[in-house]
């Protein structure tokens, strides 16, 4: 990392390490699915994600829906500067991580939300 920072500084580019996303979302999600592990494994889940970046901040939206019409919605503020594309990539990664932690075996992910 230090080597990269030095090389980038030679070209007037500043390296900024990425801050962590608060893990509270995982805690909240897990608390909602406790006792539903069998449901998670035997359904096809749909994940809809979107990310946005403005001059005042960035965030992602994630909606997880089951084939039984259950849904869980999350809005997360990113605590690091990012572009619209990067915010959307973060949404995809977080949505995938959430559904994986839940134990789902099958899911479809859409980055073009039809909330």
TrEMBL record:
<protein>
    <recommendedName>
        <fullName>RNase H type-1 domain-containing protein</fullName>
    </recommendedName>
</protein>
<dbReference type="GO" id="GO:0003676">
    <property type="term" value="F:nucleic acid binding"/>
</dbReference>
<dbReference type="InterPro" id="IPR036397">
    <property type="entry name" value="RNaseH_sf"/>
</dbReference>
<dbReference type="InterPro" id="IPR012337">
    <property type="entry name" value="RNaseH-like_sf"/>
</dbReference>
């Amino acid at each position: 990392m230090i080597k990269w920072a030095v090389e980038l500084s030679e070209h007037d580019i500043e390296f900024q390490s990425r801050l962590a996303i608060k893990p509270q979302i995982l805690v909240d999600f897990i608390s909602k699915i406790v006792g539903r592990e069998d449901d998670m494994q035997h359904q096809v889940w749909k994940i809809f994600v979107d990310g946005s970046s403005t001059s005042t901040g960035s965030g992602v939206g994630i909606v997880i829906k089951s084939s039984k019409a259950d849904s869980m919605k999350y809005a997360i503020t990113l605590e690091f500067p990012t572009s619209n594309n990067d915010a959307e990539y973060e949404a995809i990664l977080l949505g995938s991580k959430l559904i994986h932690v839940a134990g789902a075996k099958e899911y479809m992910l859409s980055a073009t939300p039809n909330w």
